[in-house]
Design a protein that fits this description.
- The chain has a single domain, classed as TIM Barrel, CATH 3.20.20.
- The protein is α/β, with parallel strands linked by helices and 274 residues long.
- 47% of the residues are buried.
């Protein structure tokens, strides 16, 4: 299964319906909405499509009351049964002063979802997870894990941690551009912000990258591993490697095209079915 990952800040919330229809028409399975969205903001994506699954990537536990999230989920799920998946994440210590004891905070948030008047079913929620303990929690308390900004090595390690049952659906950013220097430049511009966040850098260090790889927007070795680039066919090969390594689904984030990445989405859809 292949989906797309984007944000309203990228495509424009006013273009949500157009983007969702395009994604469905191209044959993708899931539309992942990033940028810590409020759950009601996915409604235009659901209303504009017939069968596309819409997922949050992610709602942030520090910014949400679990009972409110559960009520919002129940309202949307009643109208759009089996089409809504709630991705939940802990965020980053650099992003909120409330950040502490992430594993305990996530457990408490999931407890709140379960205690709600209309609980969010375990198979309709998934967790942003990078480190082993959060991966284990995603397997225990949700459909599975949705890692972000990860190389192939993480997909392989995460599948080993999760075992055979839980969902593993990494996000993979890509640049469809055969000019290597230009593609790496676009990838590095995107990566720079994430390489300042300890959750991501710690995950990369665990996988064998070093401080030199992380500095200055990322070494070529790191950029090439985390952000596949080249022709659509070359990128499709890299995405299939994630599937072969144990991913059940890959969420493609097409970089380098302003607004709705129509050309990238179309080229990648065609390459993945070739």
């Amino acid at each position: 299964m292949i989906g797309v990952w984007t944000t309203y800040s990228r495509i424009g919330e006013e273009n949500a319906g157009e983007a969702a229809r395009l994604v469905e028409d191209l044959g993708y399975d899931v539309f992942w909405l990033g940028g810590s969205p409020r759950l009601p903001s996915v409604r235009p994506l659901l209303e504009a499509t017939d069968s596309l699954v819409v997922a949050t990537a992610i709602v942030n536990v520090w910014a949400y009351d679990p009972a409110q999230l559960a009520a919002e989920y129940a309202a949307l799920a009643h109208e759009f049964p089996e089409r809504l998946l709630v991705g939940v994440g802990i965020g980053h210590p650099e992003a909120t002063s409330d950040y502490s004891k992430p594993l305990s905070a996530m457990r408490e948030f999931l407890d709140g979802l379960d205690r709600a008047e209309t609980p969010v079913p375990q198979d309709r929620r998934c967790l942003a997870a990078l480190a082993p303990k959060m991966l284990a929690l995603s397997a225990e308390r949700s459909l599975g894990a949705i890692p972000y900004f990860v190389p192939l090595a993480h997909t392989r390690a995460a599948r080993a941690e999760l075992g055979g049952g839980p969902l593993l659906a990494p996000e993979v950013a890509v640049v469809v551009d055969c000019d290597t220097d230009r593609a790496r430049g676009r990838a590095r511009e995107y990566a720079r912000g994430y390489l300042g966040l300890s959750n991501y850098t710690n995950a990369l260090l665990r996988l064998g990258f070093n401080d030199e790889d992380i500095a200055a927007g990322g070494s070529d070795r790191l950029i090439d591993a985390v952000i596949p680039h080249g022709s659509a066919a070359e990128i499709a090969t890299a995405i299939r490697a994630h599937l072969d390594a144990g991913a059940d689904h890959v969420a493609l984030q097409a970089l380098g095209e302003p607004g709705i990445p129509r050309q990238g989405w179309a080229a990648l859809a065609e390459a993945m079915t070739a």
